[in-house]
Amino acid sequence: MHSSSQAMLLLLGIVIILITPGPTNTLLATAGLRSGIRRAAPLMAAELAGYCIAISVWGYLVTHAAGFLTWLPTFVRIACSVYIAYLAITMWRTAVALPTSAQKTVGMRALFVTTLLNPKAMLFASAIFPSSAFGDPVAYLQTMSIFAAALIPIGFLWITFGAALGTGRLAWLSPERVQRGASIVLATFSIALAWTTLH
Asked: Which parts of the chain span the membrane according to its record (predicted)?
């Protein structure tokens, strides 16, 4: 069972990772731009399915391997912290690949496969979700419910963002501003993750 404080920390970690730019979010924004909000909205089901499968597989592997590799969870968390820091630096230095009207329509299969292979799934499984989520069915359902509750509005936000780009309403929002805002959030999260792992 999650306490209210644990649930809030879990939700915060999920939101920080989900909202940052990445392959899945770029496809959602592209779908919003090309197809409009109403037609792109069902793609969130493919995103949720892809993440649930990938997170479950990663979580199972890490949790069961930890039985004979006791150092593995700590190592993976530190590796995730370093990876997030690397993403933060990369985002700061390069422009976000925002969608353009030249890109073709995004389908359910493309979004599902992209999400299935998204490195964020490993971060969720090894650094964000509690280890109990992969050993207790009740904890698993609770954690996945919190994840789904965060994913749906964030996915909708990215679709809406893409649709707004198509109307020219977000001309003030340059790729550099999106990039650097996400970079600061990721850097802060990387430091926090490393601190909680080592203390």
From this structure: 6-28, 40-62, 68-89, 110-129, 141-166, 178-198
